[in-house]
């Protein structure tokens, strides 16, 4: 099976590498040529336009920053829908608005293509280790047919419902993650202000009712855990601007369905402040530093 992989960033590159390791033929594209060089070093091929990359493949996977990148990549004149062979399966793993996912899938379906929205959770470590959680919107039958492909990149693969549902689950999950990262940072800062060792504080809370993923796996305080962005000057990982985008998706979505998300809105405002202070490219756990 030949796979086109578009968007070779913090997540896309390790996901594509796992497909290469599993003996799939992978051809990649990214506007950043360094990312394409890295894919080649890992045994992948590349080409210099989306149209060339998707022309002769069985599956296209996209892992792009936001809705506008996905809509452009699929719907532009030289984009994916106009360049793929009939029967190519289309999978978008980016985190985008559920409305955008439905719009692109509708256009793909009208042209006779099957499309899945399949956003992921698990961070860059999950992408590297092939342990991502996939939340998939679209046909369950199509998902079952390509389950073994997903299993090369992830451990938990869930069907969420029709097109757009994968993104709805992702928006809910990431809103909660943003709130939990802020809450975890606040609790750690309170303990530190009381003279607590943040390692001891984290260890005890991890075995108590305040436990959560931000505390236990992705601790925002430097040097509490090895191999977290916090212990590496907040480099790599999941960018502040990407979290801000996801909290914006939650706000837009809540308005469109008439839901109230007071904590999600507060988190969005705080990540916005942090981004506007020049921290947009740092990992989102750097929100720890916004608190005095
Ligand atoms: P990233 O910014 O590291 O990577 C995005 C890549 O897309 C970049 O290499 C960029 O050059 C490329 N790109 C942008 N526009 C392009 C275009 N038109 N054509 C080809 N390539 C293009 O982002 P990431 O962290 O890899 O995240 C990708 C998606 O996954 C986002 O939607 C994000 O919200 C989501 N996500 C990220 C994480 C994480 O921990 N980083 C976790 C879950 C989900």
Characteristic terms for this protein:
single chain; 292 residues; alpha/beta; Rossmann fold; N-(1-d-carboxylethyl)-l-norvaline Dehydrogenase, domain 2; 6-stranded parallel beta sheet; globular
Description:
There is one protein chain. The chain is of the alpha/beta class and 292 residues long. It is built from 13 helices and 9 strands. It has helices spanning 12-21, 33-41, 50-54, 67-75, 98-110, 123-129, 140-145, 147-151, 165-193, 198-206, 213-216, 240-257, 262-279, and strands at 2-6, 25-29, 45-46, 59-62, 89-92, 115-117, 120-121, 132-137, 154-161. The strands form 2 sheets. The protein has a 6-stranded parallel sheet with strand order 3-2-1-4-5-6, sandwiched between helices. A 3-stranded mixed sheet has the order 7-8-9. Helix 1 packs parallel to helix 6 and helix 12 packs antiparallel against helix 13. Bound molecules: nicotinamide-adenine-dinucleotide.
Q: What top-tier CATH class of the largest domain fits best?
A: Alpha Beta
Distance between the amino and carboxyl termini: 52 Å
Query: Reading side by side through the largest sheet, how are the strands ordered?
Result: 3-2-1-4-5-6
Q: What is the correct CATH architecture of the largest domain?
A: 3-Layer(aba) Sandwich
Find the CATH topology of the largest domain. Rossmann fold
Provide the low-confidence segments as ranges: none
> What is the residue-mean pLDDT, rounded to a whole number?
97
In terms of DSSP E residues, the strand content is 5-15%
The distinct bound ligands, ions and cofactors come out as:
nicotinamide-adenine-dinucleotide
Structural class: alpha/beta
Number of domains: 2
Name of the CATH superfamily of the largest domain:
NAD(P)-binding Rossmann-like Domain
Tally of DSSP β-strands: 9
Described by strand count, sense and barrel closure, the largest sheet is: 6 strands, parallel
Number of helical segments? 13
Overall spatial form: globular
CA radius of gyration: 19 Å
């Amino acid at each position: 099976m030949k796979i086109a992989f578009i968007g070779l960033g913090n997540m896309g590159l390790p996901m594509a590498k796992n497909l290469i390791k599993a003996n799939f033929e992978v051809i990649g594209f990214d506007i950043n040529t360094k990312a394409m060089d890295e894919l080649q070093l890992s045994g992948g091929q590349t080409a210099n336009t989306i149209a060339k990359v998707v022309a002769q493949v069985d599956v296209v996977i996209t892992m792009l920053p936001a809705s506008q990148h996905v809509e452009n990549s699929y719907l532009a004149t030289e984009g994916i829908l106009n360049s793929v062979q009939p029967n190519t399966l289309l999978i978008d793993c980016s985190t985008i608005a559920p409305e955008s996912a439905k719009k692109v899938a509708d256009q793909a379906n009208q042209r006779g293509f099957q499309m899945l929205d399949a956003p992921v959770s698990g961070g860059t470590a999950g992408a590297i280790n092939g342990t991502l959680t996939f939340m998939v919107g679209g046909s369950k039958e199509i998902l079952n047919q390509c389950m073994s492909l997903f299993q090369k990149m992830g451990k938990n693969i869930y069907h969420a419902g029709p097109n757009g549902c994968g993104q709805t689950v992702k928006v809910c999950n990431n809103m909660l993650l943003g709130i939990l990262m802020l809450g975890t940072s606040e609790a750690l800062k309170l303990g530190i202000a009381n003279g607590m060792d943040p390692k001891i504080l984290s260890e005890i809370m991890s075995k108590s009712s305040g436990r959560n993923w931000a505390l236990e796996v992705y601790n925002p305080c430097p040097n509490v855990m090895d191999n977290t962005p916090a212990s590496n000057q907040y480099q790599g990982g999941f960018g502040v601007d990407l979290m801000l985008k996801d909290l914006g998706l939650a706000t837009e979505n809540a308005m469109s369905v008439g839901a109230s998300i007071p904590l999600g809105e507060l988190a969005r405002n705080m990540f916005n402040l942090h981004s506007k202070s020049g921290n947009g490219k740092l990992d989102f756990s750097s929100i720890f530093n916004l608190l005095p």
